[in-house]
Amino acid sequence: MTAGFAKEHPDRFFECGIAEANMVSIAGGLATAGKIPFASSFSCFLLNKGFEQLRVSVAYPHTNAKFVGTHSGISIGEDGPSQMSIEDLGLACSLPGFTVMAPADEISTKALVKAAAAYVGPVFIRTGRVKVPVIYTEGHQFEIGKSVELQEGTDITLIAHGLMVAEALRAAETLDAEGVSARVIDMHTIKPLDREAIGRAARETKAIVVAEEHLKETGLGVRVAQVVSEEAPCVMEYVGLETYAESGTPDGVVKKYGLTAERVVEAARTALRRKA
Amino acid sequence: MAVKTKYELKLGAATREAFGKALVELGRENANVVALDADLRSRQ
Question: How much is the ipTM here?
């Protein structure tokens, strides 16, 4: 991921080796010295091994360092559960002052990485290994903390991040065929949350499904639920992970662990039954 | 009556690749941008 930058700017590139904690400290120092460091590694190792340094050298002093986790979620596939980050968003969100994003496609990723560079403060951006469907058209304007309503809907709202955004759109199509009008929101910024969009969804559709390639207990879902409980309590269902996964093809593990449009549709039907 | 979604959802690049491209552009646009990696490759 950093090969292109390293080739063009060898004097501004630091290969830290597999010493993620040290890399985080270096990034904190470079930010303190006025640079805008982008430190990247597998999400799993960046967050788990670098957590103490992210807390002390980045979050607490609120340094202007940016971290990009790659190979996130279970869709990394064959590498297996030791490399699968399913807790990374929870860890990153637990750090006060951090901005946390999980973009869905190449266009939003590029725009939000640029936005992260312009923003002053610590940022974590989650990216994935597998090719993902293109959702946006070139030139779409993105703003940190402002979600995107991809589809209007009045009966239920599907909120997702990362590769589940495309699945939510597919689910909305299925629901539409059943006469259900589903709103679809790309919640690319996990922290700070778009309270306005969540509150409006809760008030107007009165049912929300949150779908994510992350542990349910510490992911977007519980964060959305907190906002809903404060703004306008409504029925909620969750699609996400409950356990560590296993080694397999990306498609295979994603299906086995229920990160599919079909599962989103099932959750939506349950929510609609509960709402009735 | 089903309304066909306007999203074709054609397969694009991985988001990690998009990060790499954005980083190259940022490097050209802002001399203060530096990059760090924790990889297995040897130093150039």
Answer: 0.96
